[in-house]
Specification:
Number of helices: 10
Strand order of the largest sheet: 3-4-5-6-7-8-9
Number of strands: 14
Order of helices and strands: HHHEEHEHEHEEEEEEHEHEHEEH
Distance between the termini: 32 Å
CATH class of the largest domain: Alpha Beta
Mean pLDDT: 92
Helix content: 40-55%
CATH superfamily of the largest domain: Fructose-1,6-Bisphosphatase, subunit A, domain 1
CATH topology of the largest domain: Fructose-1,6-Bisphosphatase, Chain A, domain 1
CATH architecture of the largest domain: 2-Layer Sandwich
Structural class: alpha+beta
Length: about 290
């Protein structure tokens, strides 16, 4: 039994869910994500930009969106914790206390794809996941430019604008369109560079699109056949991991074990055979 299935079949989870309608939670989360997306669109021509660290950008739009999300979550779900990319921005003292005491936590990236956003590219999204003991059970990724809302509930399916999602049936890496994510700082000798080269030679084509959340959603939607990333953050991937699972895709960490959203390395693929082929290529790079 995986960590996910163990947590979600736990009697405590079932008991806690008796007072929580996950479909209603999803509807509320989707509306919150859309309002945050509207803030991002409104600020596209007026944001201020700074570096959190070298090559790691943040804008006041990130902060404004997180404040709006955290505030609405605090009202709608006062007993839930909240963990966002932008730290304490908008997070109440009660939410911080709930992080220590509640099994329910919202894991949020108010603007996934900040570098794209800062350069005027359209590949960015709001990512929100409700987790139970660190496993995502409700997920929303909202692309405000395309007006695409990717959603999922654990055990109930995944949807794009309320239409069911299904990953592609790609079985061979040589036929696959694959995407990758890299951390902000890389050296020429970094393992990720070798992985990129090895994968480029094996797959049909390779992309680096700049948003981990959207990469995962594109796997779920069949637009990408595979995706991998290392050194990601939980808020980048929590919602997307659930959406891929519920769309029938395969997702693990880079050693093929059950994924832990807090460790931040993953491989997702449309099918089990494709997943194994991606795993093999990345493992080859790891040993070189």
């Amino acid at each position: 039994m995986t960590n996910e299935s163990a947590a979600l079949q736990n009697s405590s989870f079932k008991s806690d869910c008796e007072s929580l309608d996950l479909r209603q939670v999803l509807q509320m989360a989707e509306q919150i994500a859309k309002r945050a997306g509207a803030i991002l669109v409104q600020m596209r021509s007026s944001f201020e930009l700074r570096e959190k660290s070298e090559k790691d950008l943040v804008t006041d739009a990130d902060l404004a969106a997180q404040i709006a999300i955290a505030t609405e979550i605090a009202t709608a779900f006062p007993d839930h914790g909240f963990i966002g990319e932008e730290g304490s921005a908008g997070v109440s003292e009660r939410q911080r206390n709930n992080n220590e005491t509640s099994p329910w936590k919202w894991v949020v990236d108010p603007l996934d794809g900040t570098t794209n956003y800062a350069h005027g590219l359209s590949q960015f999204a709001v990512s929100m996941a409700l987790t139970y003991v660190s496993e995502p059970v409700v997920g929303v990724v909202y692309d405000p430019v395309a007006e695409e809302s990717y959603t999922a509930i654990s055990g109930q399916g995944a949807w794009l604008n309320n239409k069911p999602l299904k990953s592609s049936d790609c079985q061979k890496l040589s036929h696959a369109l694959v995407a990758a994510s890299f951390p902000p700082k890389l050296t020429r000798e970094a393992m990720e560079i070798q992985q990129f080269i090895d994968m480029l030679l094996e797959c049909r084509s390779l992309r680096r699109l700049g948003s981990a959340a959207l990469n995962l959603c594109y796997v779920a939607a069949g637009r990408l056949d595979g995706y991998w990333g290392g050194r990601l953050n939980a808020w980048d991937i929590a919602a997307g991991v659930l959406i891929v699972r519920e769309a029938g895709g395969r997702i693990t960490n880079q050693t093929g074990q059950a994924i832990d959203i807090w460790r931040g390395d993953l491989i997702s693929a449309a099918s089990e055979p494709l997943h194994q082929q991606i795993l093999g290529v990345l493992g080859r790079s790891d040993k070189s």
